[in-house]
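Hey team,

Filing this mostly as a record. A colleague (T.K.) asked me to run one chain through the structure pipeline before their review meeting, and I want the input and output archived in the tracker in case anyone asks later how it was produced. No errors, nothing strange. Just documentation.

Input sequence:
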Amino acid sequence: MSANTDTTTGSSERLEQRLLQSIDVLCEDAVRVELWATALGAFALPVPSYQPTDRCRLGGSQERAKPAPARGLFSRPAEA
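Output structure:
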């Protein structure tokens, strides 16, 4: 009966180790899914418009034309 108890104890320990490893892998996968969900969520947002100030432009302080208004990705150009 002692041999049977040792086998059962060994099996239980192996099972416990595999269960703990599976939980660790599951946690790593959950973190990876959360990372990708956050990244893809950020890429789904439209790019914000950007209007640089004169201080940010290169080439001195000469008069510059106003930048063209920002257009949407699928908007048509204004007709002349």
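Quick notes for T.K.: Residues 2-43 form the longest helix (42 residues). The mean pLDDT is 79.
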